[in-house]
# Entry
Amino acid sequence: MKIRFGHIIGAFLITVSFSISAFAQISPGALSKFHTQLEGLSNCTKCHTLGDKVSNDKCLACHTELKVRIDQKKGYHSSAEVKSKQCASCHNDHHGLTFQIVRFDKDKFNHNLSGYKLTGAHSKKKCEDCHKAQFINDTKIKAKKFTYLGLKTECLTCHADYHQKTLPVTCADCHNDEKFKPASKFDHQKTKFKLAGKHEHITCEECHKTSVVNGVKFQQFKGVKSTNCTNCHKDPHANKFGQNCAQCHNNESFIVVGGVKNFDHSKADFKLEGKHVNVACKLCHKQKLTTPLKFTKCTDCHTDYHNKQFAKNGVSPDCATCHTVKSFTEFSYTIDQHNASVFPLKGAHVATPCFACHKKQEKWKFKEIGKACKDCHDNIHNTFINEKYYPEVNCEACHNLDSWNSVEFDHKKTKFELEGAHTKQTCRDCHFNKEKTGHATQKFAGLAASCTNCHKDVHVKQFETNGITDCKKCHTSDSFKPASKFDHSKTKFVLDGKHLNVACSKCHKEVTQQGETFVLYKTNKLKCEDCHL
# Structure
């Protein structure tokens, strides 16, 4: 294809003919499709300054939206690394219609230079997730098919206002860029309703309800009433005790251990005393607190621990008859009450603890535990004492109720009447023999009446006759010494003259024979020369 241009010089018409390829000698190449409106020689100066490079001012005169950002010192092109460069050094043209003027390596692009540092979840997003027309407010920029311009740094630029203008738009005050939930930077203690006790452990949704507002999901945070507990909680008492819940309850628990601390239970017709003060409410109020309860009798709440042992006509008496509210183990049952029973307490029984008789096994027992001594006590004399001395095993035949060791028995009923020093001895002294092991064995029936049955023969059988030593020939039961009944004139050696005043020990010396040491009385010394030289 050829183009002719005509030019008149003087009288001649000069015709110039040249090929379109000659135009390339003037233009470096075709402009990109974004600059096609600038094609032609007459448009060159719209971008180029004659005799100089492409002017940044001319670029920005056309790209006014970018000039505004640079003037405001915002964005990538105002960064220290970019603002000193020529536009053409990055965005040159004349490389053809399909040439991409704006191009860079997305993976290597330093987003920090844009003035918005990508952190948290933002660092995982693709460029296209944020840089799209719906997030751009500027109409001129928004009209572009694609641009990286036009975005603001405020959260609501890209994100919908979940709180629908009920809270400030400074999302970063409560949230971080890792994830929207939970609002990790939110401090409830800085609000008008500080969380304490159980409130610290409940989920936000329990107080801040979610609904649909303006066709979208909405959770209410602002305007939630918190002037009274009943704003959130139902009054289980139906306003019986007023609306000031804090006068009885606290934030730790609606029903605290030990009962509701400040509640005056006398308003409920049942005054708490003793152990009842520390009982948890739910132990009695097993249903709703407002559900009426029976409380006129202990058995309305407590089971009959004694399993109707005291019941009359099938009805158990009230526990208060014997016990107090201070403690079940502390009882008010008196001795007078016990004395009115089938077993009056007397003597040592008065000081005997209840459990000694009534809790011999695992459980307490009060009825049919016996009234006779043998019902509670072992008969230690069984087979040792003839039952004729204590008919029907009645211990009181010898013992009394004040002390077991206090014994009153008429020994005349036996074959051995007590006289003299014997009347001062205890039964145990004669009837209980203590063995080497420390264990005492008793003996009553068949006990011989001879002195040597209880006493040692200190004379070592010197006065034995037919195998029997009769101590009564010389001694009395009042005292072993002196041998007041001994008559020396009845011996082979009659005392007379000077012998009458000689002490016994002068003639009767202590000797040791066959391992036995004793006083020798039968000396067989009857002649004068036996003693005198």
In short: The first strand starts at residue 2 and ends at 9. Residues 1-24 have pLDDT under 50 and may be disordered.
